[in-house]
Amino acid sequence: MKPLNYSEYLGLENILNNQKLKSEERGSAAHDEMLFIIIHQIYELWFKQIIYELNSILRIFSKDSVIESDVSLAVIRLDRIIEIQKILIDQIRVLETMTAMDFLEFRDDLFPSSGFQSSQFREIENKLGLKIGNRINYGGKDYKKVILDKEQKKVKRSEEENSLFDLLEKWLERTPFLSFEGFDFWEQYSIAVKRILNNEEQIIRNNPNYSLDEVSYHLKEHERAVSSFEAMINPEKHLELIKKNKKRLSHTATQAALLIFLYRDEPILHSPFNFLSRLIDVDELLTTWRQRHALMVRRMIGAKIGTGGSSGHAYLKATAENHKIFSELADLSTFFIQRSALPKLPEHIKRSLGYHFKL
Ligand code: HEM
Description:
mainly alpha; Methane Monooxygenase Hydroxylase, Chain G, domain 1; 2 domains; 1% strand; binds protoporphyrin IX containing FE
């Protein structure tokens, strides 16, 4: 058998012979178009790796019950995605060694193609859980219309299959600890929150340094905190917010996520806590990439429209603001209460949540 060869194993012939400069075809090669093509190809390779990792995480969470070691495995896979995302953000700097004037040398050759047509980028968004209805739309057209026919099927499938958001919600809803051996987390948590809020109200009312106007101003602010806690505690209010598209995660799943964040010190909740934290990281890094890409685009093309036909920078800025997936997990910190005020877990539950060894 022929010995394995480096170049053949990696398919380098294909990869290294696929940088075809449009400006060269036109008869006037623009030096920076090589960088422009290579950097996009590198992005697509990393996108492929991200999808590969995401698929394995989706498989883990598609099971009816997810074992502890699989949650840790998902965390390891998310860590890899996170490191790749950091590189994706960093390599914008390489592209920025190309100036706006250099870009103009070949920009017209690119119309009407655009990163907007990246099917792998759409798959990543869909697999994470970006909802179709939440997408910023431009030109009133479905984003899939501009994707190559042969790539559309995969993107459509990624829209229809359970996303990581969907599977996370189901997994959280199955958390056994919400009502656990006589300990009702939600009831105890509501009591603790009410106590804290009452205390805060008294502090405002009794502050000798406040004028009457200041007391009424601070009470109004306090009122806002109270109603936000009420909306959190009350399942009907939560459902109303879901109907208005102001929240997405179900009430039960939200309760479970909050419990994981509040009792993260309990050994059994370490991996779930890490998992939720990594999802926030992935979401934040995707937003950071969007912001960074939008800034780069402003520097390259100012207020011109994009080659794909959008308003360019303005459209990209709006996606950075709105295309968030796990921000509700980050927002949960609004409802954190200090460790000393947390309902104490009964000893037998603490033992169930810990690791113990019998010698
Ligand atoms: C000179 C460099 C670049 C410019 C001027 C630029 C410009 C734009 C513009 C204006 C859009 C909005 C759609 C449109 O109207 O075309 C866009 C979208 C996009 N670009 Fe770039 N881009 C550049 C580099 C890159 C790179 C290196 C990537 C890496 C893959 C990339 C990926 C994307 C993606 C994924 C979108 C879709 C974003 C969304 O819809 O949320 N772009 N780009």
